[in-house]
Design goal:
Number of strands: 6
Low-confidence stretches: 1-21
Strand order of the largest sheet: 3-6-5-4
Mean pLDDT: 87
Radius of gyration: 18 Å
Order of helices and strands: HHHHHHEEEHEHEEH
Largest sheet: 4 strands, mixed
Helix content: 25-40%
């Protein structure tokens, strides 16, 4: 998997705060919205290969106005989805954040463990096992967790993805919500770790019965 574009959204904010003189840091306006995007399987060379097909307000804007990393590498194995999301949003390695693969053998139970599996929670929006998920196995905080702590829980952090791990691991432990797609029902769902009921906007969306091509 290739993880690059989240850096384009987040690092400019970090770079600004670290390079401006301390006396001026207080005058910097706090962003009202920060969006993190990870594009599965998009290789670095695709930026140049398809440059002429990108719009000015899309990838070209991110490359020209953002922070574009041109010499990066992975210093952990395996580069699966779960470890990638956990590493990006926590800034730590799998050995530290605990997400060492999508699935691994748990010596304590003698069984295989899925990275976001949590049988202690209740599915919200579904009765299937797809809702038995949480960030329980993530051992450290995410950027979203730290944002919530820094704002005394006033900031709102939400993770949305087709995959549960792609929603949960970036959102973190204290996120307001995380939603993911349940292939058995065709709906977006969550778990009791985050919410007690689905919001109206999501139930309305589910009611439209869209069928994503996945």
């Amino acid at each position: 998997m290739k993880y690059i574009y989240i850096l384009l959204f987040c690092l400019p904010l970090v770079a600004i705060s670290q390079t401006k003189p301390a006396a001026k840091s207080a005058s910097l306006a706090k962003p009202k919205l920060v969006v993190g995007v990870v594009i599965d399987q998009m290789r670095y060379d695709y930026i140049f290969r398809y440059w002429d097909k990108f719009s000015a307000g899309g990838f070209k804007r991110l490359v020209n106005s953002g922070f574009f990393c041109k010499n990066t590498n992975y210093n952990y194995v395996p580069t699966y989805t779960g470890p990638g999301h956990a590493s990006i949003y926590t800034g730590t390695y799998p050995a530290v954040n605990g997400i060492i693969a999508n699935d691994w053998y748990d010596k304590k139970t003698g069984q295989m463990l899925y990275c976001t599996e949590d049988k202690s929670v209740t599915p919200i929006g579904s009765d299937s096992e797809a809702g038995l998920m949480s960030p329980k196995n993530l051992l450290v905080t995410t950027m979203g967790d730290e944002l919530r702590l820094n704002s005394i829980q006033q900031s709102k952090v939400i993770g949305i993805s087709l995959k549960d791990r792609a929603s949960i691991l970036p959102a973190g432990h204290s996120a307001n919500a995380a939603y993911w797609f349940d292939g058995s029902t065709g709906n977006f769902i969550s778990s009791s770790h985050y919410v007690t009921t689905l919001p109206k906007w999501l139930t309305d969306f589910n009611a439209k019965n869209y069928q994503p091509n996945i």
